[in-house]
Amino acid sequence: ISFSGFLCCIFSVFTV
């Protein structure tokens, strides 16, 4: 699990 991928996921959800 990479931190970048996690942040990407969170950002994607926030910018729905």
TrEMBL record:
Origin, by domain of life?
Answer: Eukaryota
Q: What is this protein called?
A: Short wavelength sensitive type 1 opsin
Per the UniProt record, the source organism is Malurus leucopterus edouardi
**The gene coding this protein:** SWS1
